[in-house]
Design a protein that fits this description.
Largest sheet: 7 strands, mixed
Radius of gyration: 19 Å
Strand order of the largest sheet: 4-3-2-1-5-6-7
Number of domains: 2
CATH class of the largest domain: Alpha Beta
CATH superfamily of the largest domain: HAD superfamily/HAD-like
Order of helices and strands: HEHHHHHHEHEEHEHEHEH
Length: 301
């Protein structure tokens, strides 16, 4: 795995190897910080986000318990199984329209209020123990991209510290990131709700703490690491600020922006919705675009 064997020879692989070689030569290990988006960058995000499956099940439960909820979104979509509504809400968000996303975010933040963090983690683990991708027909825990996991290991072997920086829920990702990616929970930065302390426990609230998307990603990277990363990898418009931040440290500082392009309908999915702006930025800013179809010898293990 030391030579990125699941990456096909080509410009993307060459750019990664050249960048790492330069970083090892020019940067101290503590400066070698790499940040990775999760949905669509480390694991699949179509036909719907993995966390969305977890949340829709909960929203449907809530609508069944309180029929008055079922008349409004997103409970109506959850109860009827209309996953397209959720996908459209997120795509519109990445294109600047939050008309549906605000309702979705409010429901998400309140879905699991009143649980201890340990109780929430247990529900996440139970979900991953038997949930499977609806079209790929493989466990969600087997839906991580092999070339990206290999990249994580390659960076570690060269003295990098990897962080996950996602719009997904921090406490949804943490129970599985060590096993799937080798990234421990303390290096997961994601969206979160506020917590209350009560009787020796931390309990979830319905109050948003962070929606870790767009410019907030860059802010929270600094808040959590105290450093400007030198490598950022993403796949959508929501990752633009993070890639700008990583590659904006000056012309003499090794840095790299990496975008995953979903263009392989046979092995995964083919889409650019929600990524149009980031792909345009890649052309002008010199970010590397990794084509799943052309650059990855394998997609999944």
């Amino acid at each position: 795995m030391g030579d990125l064997g699941t990456w096909n020879d080509g410009p993307a692989k060459a750019a990664l190897l050249d960048f790492v070689a330069r970083a090892v030569t020019e940067l101290a290990p503590e400066e070698r910080i790499a940040v990775f988006d999760n949905d669509g960058t480390l694991w699949v995000e179509k036909p719907a986000y993995i966390q969305l499956d977890f949340l829709v099940r909960r929203l449907s439960e809530q609508a069944a318990a309180d029929p008055s909820l079922a008349a409004s979104q997103p409970y109506l979509a959850a109860a009827s199984g209309d996953l397209s509504w959720f996908g459209d809400a997120v795509t519109k968000h990445y294109n600047g329209d939050d008309s549906a996303f605000n309702a979705l975010a409010g429901a998400i933040f309140s879905a699991y209020q009143g649980l201890t963090v340990e109780e929430h983690a247990a529900r996440v683990k139970a979900f991953f123990s038997d949930a499977a991708h609806p079209t790929l027909k493989r466990p969600y825990t087997a839906c991580g991209y092999t070339p990206m996991v290999e990249l994580l290991r390659y960076l570690e072997d060269n003295g990098f510290t990897n962080y996950i920086v996602s719009g997904g829920g921090r406490d949804f990702m943490r129970p599985v990131t060590s096993g799937m990616y080798g990234v421990p929970p303390e290096r997961v930065i994601g969206s979160s709700v506020g917590l209350d302390y009560a009787d020796g426990n931390l309990v979830t609230t319905s109050t948003p703490e962070f929606l870790n998307d767009g410019p907030v990603k860059a802010v929270r990277i600094w808040g959590r690491t105290g450093r400007r990363p030198v490598l950022a990898a993403g796949n959508s418009n929501g990752d633009i600020a993070m890639l700008e931040y990583a590659t904006g440290g000056g012309p003499h500082r090794p840095s790299m922006g990496l975008l995953v392009l979903h263009d392989d309908a046979e092995r995964e999915f083919d889409y650019v919705a929600g990524a149009e702006k980031s792909l345009e930025q890649a052309k002008s800013r010199g970010w590397t675009v990794a084509s799943i179809r052309n650059d990855w010898a394998h997609v999944f293990a």
